[in-house]
Amino acid sequence: MSIKNMFSKENLKSDMLSSVVVFLVALPLCLGIALASGAPLFSGLIAGIVGGIVVGMLSKSSLSVSGPAAGLVVIVLSAIDDLGGFQGFLLAVVMAGIIQVALGYLKAGIIGLYFPSPVIKGMLAAIGLILILKQVPHLIGFDADAFGEMEFMQQDGSNTLSFLVSSFDHIYLGSLIVGLISLFILIAWGSNFIKQNKFLKGVPGGIIVVTIGVLINYLFGVFYPDLSISGDHMVNIPVISGLDSLGAVFQFPDFSLLTNINVYITAFTLAIVASLETLLCVEAMDKLDPHKRRTPQNAELKAQGVGNIVSGLIGGLPITAVIVRGSANIEAGAKSKMSAIFHGILLLIAVAIFPTIMNMIPLASLAAILIVVGFKLTKPALYKQQFKLGREQFVPFITTVVAILFTDLLIGILIGMAVGIFYILKANYKVPYHYEEEKQVSTNNSKIRLELSEHVSFLNKASLQLTLEHLPHNSNVILDGSRSTKIDYDALEVIYNFKESAHEKNITLELINIPTGSTVTVKH
């Protein structure tokens, strides 16, 4: 999206409204992840602010949103202990950022093109299920777990499912009422009545439910004190009361530990895991993007690296692109990366100026927002669609869902990748295409013919993607699948995404015997 379009009146309005929803979701997540990581609460908020403003400005991703990630909690918790304190850990965060910048310049981001489509969709579906399972306790008022905790196995020995069951023995009626009303409003907000109303359809439901949640709790306090929500059931931003407390907010790296080998081990671990999570997230957000815009992976690694350097230098947690925030951003109607930047600014304003007002928001209202986001990521229609695509698509998809649900994001992805690769290796791996270019003297344009081979798999996705992206402007391109007996869904997705954007480079594209995106086997 061009700078002009980003700052158009219509896009700015959508981005500002969606940024409010992302901000409301990110606020307790930043605090919850810091708490679960054994780090100062402000470190999560600093990471959220840096992820929004710094990474948002440098990133070329249109819709992803960065901040502290639940997937790094275990690493952070262990590293703080291994390095003798939080300031030693901050040095590792800075070093991790430097490594990520280097990875970007080394063009390591290309690995993002090798994640097969069913694994990415399985990851999104699994995140949706986890959001629902993890947020139901907060919806009904059982807030023993940190808001935003995503691991299956928990520190107290319980797991996601056992904790969910036990939460129904600790229902807090005030939170339950607010949560159910919020859920009802959000469901109603997706109805045709709202969509047909010119004013209401432009207002994200998340803003409405938070406002109503605060109002209901105020009325509880006035008329039904026993139902009033307070304490752990509310957003809880530490209040900066003066210069003395401000000094505790910003902690700085301990550079005396530069000779400690554990700092470098932690830094490399953070850099690799954070980079993988970021590449997974931006790939997933690109698939959810209505306009099918693609994020340059190497540029994203550089942006994330700079973000981690800044975050580490001023006392923040490590940063990645985060699927939960990005999904909420898309659901709220964001148009460009300005939404991510605005959400970072709102976090800064909330922490610096309005913490008392933010602390009036019930967690039950925010849980309802995340439950609806989760359901839209894991709709039954998605499972049905993947099943119809055949065993080679469905088995890696459902394996990824189950593996992430019962382990964590990265382990689940690796298991899903292994299953996907198994199916691909069963087929004969061939060169994906024959490339032939002829210069037309009369028009000074190129006539290019790409003849696909007998079998085109997801392993050919990166090669095909890069070839199509680097086709010269004003060329006439023929993409011929006449010799192909099988074209995997991932390759078809690349072809049809290119077809939608070819006109931007004035490329004339002709498809011969290329099946539709919902078909994987070519019949001659």
Automatic annotation (TrEMBL):
Sorted alphabetically, the Gene Ontology BP terms of this entry are:
transmembrane transport
UniProt keyword annotation of Transmembrane helix present = yes
Q: What is its main location?
A: membrane
One annotated Gene Ontology cellular component of this protein: membrane
Q: What subcellular locations does the record give?
A: Membrane
Q: Which residues cross the membrane?
A: 42-58, 63-80, 86-106, 113-133, 171-190, 202-224, 261-285, 306-328, 340-373, 394-425
Spell out the PROSITE patterns in the cross-references: STAS
- Keywords, sorted A to Z: Membrane, Transmembrane, Transmembrane helix
Check the record and name the Pfam families matching this protein: Sulfate_transp (PF00916)
Q: Start and end of every STAS domain?
A: 437-524
Q: How does it sit in the membrane?
A: Multi-pass membrane protein
Q: Which residues form the signal peptide?
A: none
Record PANTHER family: SULFATE TRANSPORTER
Q: What is this protein called?
A: STAS domain-containing protein
Taxonomic source organism: Roseivirga ehrenbergii (strain DSM 102268 / JCM 13514 / KCTC 12282 / NCIMB 14502 / KMM 6017)
